Amino acid sequence: MNIELIEIRDFLASHPPFSQLPQDTLERLPQRLSVRYFRRGSPFPPENADPLCVYLLRRGAVELRDANGELVGKLAEGDLCDMPCRPTPEGGRFFGNTSEDTLVYALPCAELADLREQHAEFAEHFDQSISSRLRKALDIMVDAPAAGTGLMTVQIGNMINRTPIVASPETSIREAAQVMSEHRVSSLLIMEGDRLAGMITDRDLRSRCVAVGLSTDRPVSEIMTEKLQTAQVDTLGFQALITMTRLNVHHLPVLDGQRVAGLISTTDLTRFQSANAVYLVGDIHRATSIETLVQISAKIPELQVHLVNGGATANHVGQAISAITDAITQRLLILAEADLGNPPVPYAWIVGGSQARREQSSHSDQDNALLIADHAKPDDDAYFAALAKIVNDGLDACGFVYCPGDVMASNPKWRQPLRIWHKYFTNWILKPEPNSLMLANVFFDLRAVHDPDNLFPELQERVLERSKANRIFVAYMVANALKYRPPLGFFRNIVLIQGGDHDHTFDIKHKGIVPIVDLARIYALSGGLPETNTIERLSSAAEHGTLSKDGAANLTDAIELVGTLRMRHQANQLAHGRKADNFLSPDELSPLERGHLKDAFLLINTMQESLGQRYQAGRFA
């Protein structure tokens, strides 16, 4: 084989779907190709070509447009154009022109058909839709982790290895303790017939019986926990772990429908995962100083690396780390109140941004605010200013750095009574100016992490009512969201960052994740939906009809794939002792990963165009 054919073979071998062909087929394939050259501005695919061919771009660029002339995609080095080989009418749906001088390898459609018939994996690339390819790619990423723990795929029903130990509500506390000692368990399910009535743990025996001098002859119903969080047998181990982390509990009753199947504990889960978010949260709740919290928070990067290596998706990592941030915030508030005394009036500590959406990576910056009861007096602000300073300084010391835009409770503007917050949101909705839209991206994702007097639900309900009823506001939000476009053809130098510290990279957060987060926020606001997590918003929007089920599924797969690539990039940096960032070089990705990422970007672009047309976003840009 001459040098030119070897170069073509090596190029094919490094670009999907040809990279999926066996070696002997790749050796013969270059001789079946022709090389074509197109000057800038030429129709593409070429008109009246004989024979019809599939084209692989070796160099250059192509812009694809629909019948209305709207840009729907871009092709660059390594991209495949198979429109001429598709059956009509799909093959005539898009039209293209070369935007640069372009060199391609052309393979006749008949030859392509032979390859598809002979090689199933190769054929899948053409048989599957973009959404199907994304789903398969995501499944592969999760099912084939670098160092698996199994917790991402195992169902907790398969982890139950013994019949549940139970007692009745009338059982005495002494008898219950004897049963627990006999069976060497730290918890006991309390059953009323076939109904789960409650549960007791070693902690309950200590704190609710021994510590208060309660007679052990009393029925166990007096110390049991009645309102229990449960999980179904088909719940994934990681989902159970997240539930335990949020609630700071170490036992979870498992149901099969309504029937009690058993009990899962953190001990069971740690058989699968050694670095455990639950135990970090437990340590946080026992911390007596900011210095201790700083020591605990230093373990968060290690946890992110462990989760990613164990096959965790971006959603898994975000849920775990956000639960830890919530716990640190709550503990700082307790320490602050212990130092300052009881608050003069009720308040809620509310968070925005990625923490509110439960989508944090290790040590994100902080976005937070204080919602104070309306009957607060002017003098009360001194207390809340001091409280905010302790918590904001504490979070910064723990690695959650100060917000660059000063969106923190230490800023008096974001430390206000409920009535002022109502005015803020009313103005943002009725007067959607650029600054209002920027703030909306933070404050329309709010979530309360401390709200003992339930101040936040009233504010959230009113905000959702106003935003849902104001179509013009939503249209402005759409126009603002469309400013963040995915970098189609991102691996070409002309669209990568040039020079500086991030030369030859692209920002995967702002170019890949933010566009989906913005879309999900708009679907939620237009439907008056209370969810803040992006995936939960997409699911809820599909249920309430503000987004199609296919659209929700596609965007969910897209954000999981893009987000997981981002988490893996960061985990690799952290594992090598570097600071994590969002600047990904295409050289870090395999050709197949680049192809999947481009599929995700194409889906995002399509959904952005659809939403923009629905709200005529161009009028509000």
UniProtKB/TrEMBL annotation:
Keywords attached to this entry: CBS domain
Keyword Disulfide bond in record: no
Location of the CBS domain: 159-216, 224-280
Domain of life: Bacteria
InterPro entries: CBS_dom, CBS_dom_sf, cNMP-bd_dom_sf, Diverse_CBS-Domain, DUF294_put_nucleoTrafse_sb-bd, GlnD_Uridyltrans_N, RmlC-like_jellyroll
UniProt keyword Lipid metabolism present: no
One matching Pfam family: CBS
MF (Gene Ontology): [protein-PII] uridylyltransferase activity
Name this protein carries in UniProt: CBS domain-containing protein
